[in-house]
Every structure is written in structure tokens, then in C-alpha cells.
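Please check this.
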Amino acid sequence: MAPNGVSSRQKSCNACVRSKRRCDKRTPACSNCARKRYLCVYGGQLNMPSYNDSAEVPMCLDSLGGSPPASCEESFALDDAGFCTSFGTGIAIPSDATLQMDSTLESMLGSMIESGLGDTPGETDLLRQDTQIAPTPPSGALSRQDYSKMLPMCDGYAPWQLADPSTRAAYALNVFKNFPATFARENSTLYMHRRLYTSNPPRWILQAFSVCVLYTNQTEATRGFVLRILCENVKDLVETASGTALTPQEKLARVHALMVYQSIRMFDGDISLGQQADNDLLLQETWNGELGKIRDNLEELAELDTSEIRQRPPESWERWLFAESVRRTYIMCSVLKTFWDLLKGRRTATELGNWRYVHRWTLSRHLWAATDPLIFFKAWKEKPMWIIPGFYLDDFLRTGTADDADEFAMVFLTLTFGVNEMKMFCYEASGHSRE
């Protein structure tokens, strides 16, 4: 009789069997599962919700412009001039300073829920042109408790919070409003790597970039002309990119183009543009669902220690850039949809939708900001990296340094813990005494 009363010849838990690791057979969770925060199951599979087609699940909830700052001394203003993920405390964080969780920050880490994490399907060969592999059922599912740090922003949202820069809602609004300006200025976003489209960029990307440049530099005299160009390019995107016979790069490019168009229309303030964005929300979900089918969700690497991950580098730098851009885009596109639903009053307290499943990404500024293959593979062998399941940042908070986090990570750290909490986070990590 296996632990938990399940009759089976299998003595090790399912996770250890899959990863071919020694299992100490502890209950209720073995040491490997406890360390990796997996759902520990002995002698068989759990009955979890089926997930046969990502398009059937409602979607509720890539290089940077240079290396992200490793300090907190730059401006953290929530305005339309630009987006910055550092904080205006005037305090620099040493690049080798470990982010220790003490005093008030210790409570943030201690409050995180001790629970297993599930998987979302969709892993396939990212460079195949037409082949798609059917998603596999998840081995676990998440609940509202797994998002306990994000729930206050969603459940306690009120419109006045958008006018208070210390709230997470105002912070999120600023992040999304600045996608077009960031793309126009840096030829990249938090989720779109600068070198993703260096050769033969799809015309949808060129059109979206042109719109972002025009929109960012509009004047009262040119606004009408700019909005006309925006509407015509959205129409062209919908008409020419809605087919299914697209390459993986084209599927990613159409989501990138639509996301900047949606960001403009959602947060411009024009009622008609907002309604057009709302009308295209189903298309946004559908295209992102198709993107999920070609995503490598890092299920295998997530079961390995860092030393083992270092022995399994990607086939090429370019392949990793594409794969990580897909992972980040899928998450950010889903968050954009969820945030818009929140503003429109359409979110219900019990609804998780596609957030029932874990969506993984790689936290490592050293990998994301690498400028050539040599630097990338050197960082893979030597620099810290974390496979982050969703918004669970526990391991990074325990062992990470200020130099390790890129802007994508800083966004989710802030959305998880709060704006003022992250200011204190940077302050205490700097080693300076309080005034």
C-alpha cells in the first residue's frame, strides 16, 4: 500500500518517477516536491479538470532597451512620459546585494501560500512551420489561494485607485499605457525581445511600430490623421492575420501588433476607441490561445535543480529568445485582458479561467539582456536563473540580487507585493538606515 492509502506497486511519488529522481517517500509530500512546491501524489494520477483545447478555456486573467537598471535611484513616476520599473527613493542598490527578506518584508514572504502548482499544456517544437502537438492534460490546478497576493488588487478594486499612484491598479494602468511609447522608443517591450524581428520582420510589426511612433509623437493638429492610420492598420491586421496557416513567428507577431493597438485604444481615453478595443477582445483571446499551443511551458526544466538546468542549454540563442518571448507574451496578453475586464466591471470573485493553470517564464536579466550568443551561453553556465511558475517569486526573493531582475520581473514583483512595499524592498536591500 503506497502512502495516502493508494494501492500501487509504485513506491515513489509521480513527480519523482517522471523526473527520475530518488524519492524519500515522505508524507504528505516528499522532500523533492516540498522543495519544488509540487503537488506530491503517490501511485497514480489525480483527477484534474480536462484541458483538451486551449481555445475552449476562457482567458481571464521581447529585448529590453539596454540593460534594466540595477538600482532604485531613477524616477518611478506614474505618468505618460514613459515607464520605469525602478523607484524614486534616491537610494542605489549594489549589484551584488542579496535581497534579504527582513522586518516588514519578511511578512510578505511568510504570507505566501504553501501549495502545489499545476501545469498548463502546449509544449511543442517552436520552429516547426505548421505542425502542432495536441496539449496534454495538466497534472494539477490552482485555486484562489495561490493568487492570495494578487487578490487584493482584483477583489478590492475601485475606480478612484487609478488616480492614486501608490495603488497597484494605477501602476498596472501606467505599465499598459506605456507599451506603445516603449515600443516606439526601444523597438522592444517587456515581453518582446529587441532582436526577435531583426531579419525579415512581418509587415504587421512594421505597421504597429509606425503607428506607435506616430501616436507617441502626435499633436493636436495631427491626432485625427494618426487615429485614422491606427484604425486602418487594425483593420488590415484583422483581415490578413486571421488565418490558421501561419508560421510560429507570424502567430507571435500578430499578437504583438494587436497588443500595442489594444493598449492604445483601451487607455487613450476616447470612448469610441475603447469600444473598438472591447469588440476585438475575443480576437485577442483567440490569438493568444493559439500562441499557447506553440509555447514551451518549461515543464521539464521546472523539475530540475539549477545545476541540472545548466547542463541542458537551449539549442540556440535565437531559439531561446523566441521561446521566452512567447512565454512572456502569453502571460502579459492574458493580464491585459484581465485588467481590462476589471476596469469594465466584468470580473467575478470566483472566476479564474485560464489562471487555473501555471504559466512559467524565466527570470534572469543576464539571459534576457544578453546581446550575442557568447554572452548568453556564458550567462547560462554562470549567472543565476529561476523558472518562475506564474507569480510565485518565493525562490527569487530568497536568493536573488538586484542585478538579477529585469523589468518584466519588476512588474510582477510590484503587482504581487504593491508599489510602496517594493519601494521599501529596494530601500532595505540597499543597506541604508531609515531616516
Observations:
- The chain is about 45% helix and 0% strand.
- Residues 307 and 381 are 9 Å apart (CA to CA).
- Residues 1-8, 44-139 have pLDDT under 50 and may be disordered.
- The radius of gyration is 22 Å.
